[in-house]
TrEMBL record:
<feature type="repeat" description="TPR">
    <location>
        <begin position="197"/>
        <end position="230"/>
    </location>
</feature>
<protein>
    <submittedName>
        <fullName>Uncharacterized protein</fullName>
    </submittedName>
</protein>
<keyword id="KW-0802">TPR repeat</keyword>
<dbReference type="Pfam" id="PF13181">
    <property type="entry name" value="TPR_8"/>
</dbReference>
<dbReference type="Pfam" id="PF13424">
    <property type="entry name" value="TPR_12"/>
</dbReference>
<feature type="repeat" description="TPR">
    <location>
        <begin position="72"/>
        <end position="105"/>
    </location>
</feature>
<dbReference type="InterPro" id="IPR019734">
    <property type="entry name" value="TPR_rpt"/>
</dbReference>
<dbReference type="InterPro" id="IPR011990">
    <property type="entry name" value="TPR-like_helical_dom_sf"/>
</dbReference>
<feature type="repeat" description="TPR">
    <location>
        <begin position="155"/>
        <end position="188"/>
    </location>
</feature>
<keyword id="KW-0677">Repeat</keyword>
Length: 252
């Protein structure tokens, strides 16, 4: 539902109980810290997300053998947070650690492997290596479109493909993928979910690039409205939405 502040309150209550009732190296406590990570990352508090990740990882190192599947999720979260922080070499390193474990412990066409490929592709996009970005995204789709998996995984890959083609200035292909991703997210998420704001903003930037300023304004307004309702005022995404809104307003 995108109610991250409320979720955080309940996670804190649960964690207080875990800290009292469980040994300090219990894997359940590590899982509790990982719940915090998801909230903090979505709220844009990357410092807090890293701290929670480090707490979880320290417990896992004492509890599990190297290569245990439990580490894959933790490494993936490290990758996401470092990607948010624009530390792309660290992000790529952690995503690669994640996929190394997943390939050894999961079936060949497991949906998580599609997520891994999509995440690695996104980092390559961010560093400007579009050829490798597209290659990893296609690997992700080959899994996600051919196995039973959460359709929101496909939506994320479609959105990432849209971003890649948009940065390559292939706006027609970019729009096709954005529309595929948007269709799934609008069907599966509540109307005010922050993940919808992300794709609305991306579509706004695409329309701005093609000088279709009325459509750009339509989508950025939706992104700003959701962001103002669901995100902290200083969240990097909301700041960016407002900047795009101001830039688009000047073209009206």
């Amino acid at each position: 539902m995108g109610e991250y502040s409320k979720a955080l309150e309940y996670y804190e209550k649960a964690n207080n109980i875990y800290e009292i009732s469980l040994p300090p190296t219990h894997p359940g406590l590590a899982g509790s810290y990982l719940c915090f990570v998801g909230c903090y990352e979505k709220m844009g508090d990357y410092t807090a997300a890293l701290k929670a990740l480090q707490n979880a990882y320290k417990i896992q190192q004492k509890t599990f053998q190297e290569g245990n599947q439990a580490f894959a999720s933790t490494f993936s979260w490290f990758g996401r947070v470092y990607r948010d922080l624009k530390e792309y070499s660290k992000a790529l390193s952690y995503f690669e650690k994640c996929v190394e474990i997943d390939r050894k412990t999961l079936p060949e066409k497991h949906p998580y492997l599609g997520l891994d490929d999509s995440s690695i592709g996104d980092v390559h996009r961010l560093i400007g290596d579009y050829e490798r970005a597209l290659a990893f995204r296609q690997k992700a789709l080959n899994i996600q479109e051919n196995v039973k998996c959460n359709l929101l995984y496909c939506a994320t890959t479609y959105m990432n493909l849209g971003e890649t083609y948009g940065e390559m200035k292939d706006y027609t292909t970019a729009l096709t993928y954005y529309q595929k991703g948007l269709k799934i997210r609008e069907e599966k998420l509540v109307k005010t979910h922050p993940d919808l704001a992300v794709i609305y903003h991306n579509m706004s930037k695409l329309y701005f690039s093609t000088q279709n300023y009325s459509m750009a304004m339509k989508y950025v307004q939706q992104a700003v409205e959701i962001g103002q309702e669901k995100l902290p005022a200083t969240h990097p995404h909301l700041v960016e939405y407002r900047e795009t809104f101001e830039k688009t307003s000047k073209k009206q």
